[in-house]
Target: Flp pilus-assembly TadG-like N-terminal domain-containing protein
Amino acid sequence: MRIANSGYRADRRGSILPLLGVCLIGLFGFVALAVDLGMLAVARTQSQNAADVAALVGTRTLNNKDGVLYSNLPAAVTAAKGSTTSNPLLSGNFTSAQVSKIEAGQYLYNPTSQTFQVSNWATVTSGAGSAPASGSWTALRITITVAQPTYFMRVFGVNSMPSGATATAVYRPRDIAFVLDMTGSMAYSSTFNNNSQSMNPDPMVPVAGHYVSRQSVLIASANLANGNGEAIPRNNYSIATPGGPPIIRNFYFDPSNINSPATVAYPLTTKADGSPNLLNAFHRWSPSESGADSTNYTAPTYTWTGYDPTHKGNEANPKGPVPAPAFYASMTDSAGITYAGDRWRRGDGKIDKTETTWSTSGAATRAAYHAADLLGYTGSNPPTSGVSPAFSTDWLNFRDPLWETYGYDLDISKYRTYRGSNGPTNPATYLLANLSTLNNILVPAADRFVGYSMGPGYWGKTFYVWPPDPRAPDMAQAAGGDWRRRFFYNKSGGALDPQVDNNTTNTAGSVDHINETILNTGSSGQTVTATSGTQVNYAAVLKWIKSGPQVLPPNLRAGRVLYYSSIPNDVDTGTGTTQEKFDKGFWKSYIDFVLGIGSYSGTGNLYGGADSWSSSTATITGSDLTNYKFSWQTILESATRPYMRYTDSPRRPRLNMWFGPLSMVNFLTMGDTASSIGNWLPGTCNEAHCWQLKAGMNSVLDDVKNNHPNDFAGLVFFAASQHNSVRWPLGQNFQALKNALFYPKQLLTTINGGNVTTEVRPYTTSSLTGHDDADIPNAGGSTDPQTGLAYAFNVLSPSTISAAQSVGTGNGRRGAQKIIIFETDGVPNSYRTPTFVQRGYNSYYTLGGVTSGSNGNTTGINHAYNVIKQTVKQMAATATTSGAGADSGLSLPNAQARVYPIAFGDLFDAELAPSATYRDDAQAFLAKCAEYGGTGTVGATTLPDAQTITGPYDQRITRMRDCLERIFQSGVSVVLIE
Model:
């Protein structure tokens, strides 16, 4: 019995154990499935994380910086691998070997399908790459492969399972429209004169003669403001200021016609290396300078060693002619350098080469008032004693034959001593009294009259001297003699003749008629009047300009703008080649400007109107002039009357009659003062604060190009009525965008193609008309920001029909985020009415004509707000080419359109313009633009400090760059698409 039972139990154990083994195997399988597959899932998750990070890090490393090969692809590959090995894989980290594949691609827009997709994939796992056919690398695809070891599945012979992940990152596409203010107020820091006085703080101005009492209007000592409290700061024409470096140094000339100025220097020649053959036009030598402080408007102190006024600027080491030494201001010599030109005589008749003081009192230091004063005749009546014949009691008929024979070559001081208190001396008697030697009565040869006087710095030279030299000019020579008779004709085009019998009328050609018609003595007149009584002898003026020191270059150009290619011999635009006719027209207008002829006779130019000269100023009138002959007629055989009334003392010029860099640059900045001219300053010059904006934008565009490879940018200027178009369309030609900031619009395509010589005139006819104000990128016009914002909408819009409507480029990319950067220095004061043409995502704006208004114009402000509100609406999914389509903005479901306003310049600078009337209004306007544009706080009345750009020019440039870099770095620039 027991044996039987024992056997039974043994058999049962034997049957259970195999079953248990089978169960354990299954159990291990489930454990393996749970553990190994779980580990595999973790590995796959960690692989995906690592791939995502690697793709993002690697893509963000890509850039378009100059000098970097393949969009920095090798560094991007290294960064991608490095980020991978920093990521955990279970209990360890990934290894470089597990990054099995890295591919670079381009995230491109297909305009046909209007979608983005990655194209042109290339395997770059080892770091090697090749430049894409066009554009840049903007996408990376990272593939990670992991052989995940098993733990329990090994019982089935499975030692590892494949794992890994793939991630693709791309630069998020953005379309950016820069809307820049190019209105007239953008040049307020470079205003030439204001309220009839210079805004130039440069102390190098004349102090000789009448200029000694006019320093306050020749040297700007304080910043001013207009009627609205907007700043009119001291300008940067000849010295560096907080506005920027000197404008005077922004002009150039081609030295190819330096020895034959009448020969046209066109087209521009090049050097052996192919670069433009250009030298500085107005700063033609570079004296050592020190002590300048632009922040405090402090001019540099120059070292004038070796100065030579006869230099032209093309010498190996030029030493002249401009800027001229500072001591030329007093017409004195210094440090072995002799003054070049005629020194104006003192009240005692002397030439003083060392005395720098000029005053309005003592005869030894003041200038002579008129011819009678110069020659030592005093009193209300001419002298009548001790001479023969007896003199008239009327200055009208008084004359001094010795003076009229030898003029400024006469040693007047010696003559005055000899004559004493008597009247004029018989020239023959005076010769005999001086041993009959002519040189004994004349000044030394070095001091003889040459017919020009030089000013300091950039003033150039003038033929003006009072009293005029009495001698008739030798017209075969370039200078000398009576400047009135040399440079002016009578109304019939004949020589001005002071010997014409006047009888009882002011006959053309008579003495007083010369003075009345050439010199305006009215209280508000300019130096030279434009009447029917005289004509300018332009040929004589041009000959004079080309003689002596060459203070103006033989041609003038800057920023691809050709102002003149030669200094012609006449102004007859009916003869010559096209270029010669242009030059003749230019020079006629410039001469008229300097002399104050015609439309240039106002007081708004050249530092204002002429000035009276002490109490001795006498009004020139048309009084009756009768014939009078002296008994020593043999000395002046044809002289029948005085060359002028000896007490004539007209108003003295300021910058009028000075031919040189300052008057030339003022001529180019005429603006609306002469409607035929307009602002011709080149887009490359330091016109402040327009230039500060451009310099900042230049850096910003470099940043976008370098660090945001999938950003497209376009450029819009606004200024009514000058700028009314897109400056450069949306795209990635960043060099073209930078060129558009500085060069004429009509040349941009040529310049972008590599051309270095082509230029344009700022006029299309010899009458200096036909100029397109929008061509040269300089400041001018009124503030109509809705124009710029409407064009920005069109630039960013994906519309396929806006370009055909001539209202924008219409090549925005659907799927790209839209950003408008809107800069202004003011508040709206005019507007073009924007009309929204609703065509779904083909929508665009058209613009009407300019309507003028005052600062803070609410209509213009509301137009700007409405354009911004339209911009940030959602973009329609459909489009039509005609008829009403769905309403559409530029926002996408995952990429809201944004408008970033920037307050730039003087108006917003509380230190520079403490009483600006419209600063608060302008800030409130921009704050509301930010609110509507999705970048500001609701209800705010000012912009953040980072978006308000003020301070000295270098600070503004830096702040502008930092502001926009901050904007572009905000948000997510690199995203995963798989």
